[in-house]
Design goal:
single chain; alpha/beta; Metallo-beta-lactamase, Chain A; six-stranded mixed beta sheet; 4 helices; 14 strands; 31% strand
Length: 203
């Protein structure tokens, strides 16, 4: 497994390409700049066989339709954020008007098989109703739940500070050895966040 990071869009979203094989990829949060993502795939003569969305805000979904059209791949996401795909108010793209026509496969919380990988979905509402994280082995793709030194904002239309508090408590019970790949910014170790992140500090 190789993990490739492509920074896309006006808010510098981390789009992750998980190379499961030399030519087959799972793409997480293709937020914008589809040509940039497709170019990286085609450098290897590869294909996208699956898209996973950590949540439905516009900066994480903007390239979905272009990738689906080109690769005919399924899209997975939490059902509670589905309505955000085609609602520019709920997905916070008021002026940019970003939408997606995707008909996603809804993922329940827990262990399951996605794109031939044994993964675990961890529900972490707060930043949005359907925010969730994808765990593969020791790699935690956290969306906008965890950042290096912070957590996701809760002042948006569908955000919930009370749900975020509950999600933070859930995160605090996770294995500190996990390597966190956030939706924005640098990767980090969960152990470091437990020690230094004021929202996640255990002591």
């Amino acid at each position: 497994m190789e993990i490739q990071t492509i920074v896309v869009g006006v808010y510098n979203v981390n789009c992750y390409i998980l190379w499961k094989t030399e030519k087959n990829a799972l793409v997480i949060d293709p937020g914008a700049n589809p040509e940039k993502i497709i170019n990286e795939i085609e450098k290897r003569s590869g294909v996208v066989d699956t898209i996973f969305l950590t949540h439905g805000h516009f900066d994480h979904i903007g390239a979905v339709d272009a990738l689906v059209e080109k690769y005919q791949c399924p899209v997975y996401m939490h059902p509670d954020d589905y309505e955000m795909l085609n609602d520019v108010v709920k997905n916070e793209s008021h002026y940019l008007k970003v939408t997606s026509k995707a008909k996603p496969i809804f993922v329940p919380e827990g262990k399951q098989i996605i794109s031939d990988l044994e993964v675990e979905i961890i529900d972490t509402p707060g930043h949005s109703p359907g925010s969730c994280m994808l765990l593969y082995k020791k790699y935690l793709f956290a969306g906008d739940m965890i950042f290096k030194g912070s957590v996701g904002r809760t002042d948006l239309l569908l955000s919930s500070p009370s749900q975020m508090k509950q999600s933070i408590e859930k995160v605090k019970k996770l294995d500190p050895s996990y390597l966190v790949f956030p939706g924005h910014g640098k990767a980090t170790l969960l152990k470091e966040e437990f020690e230094t992140n004021m929202f996640l500090r255990l002591k």
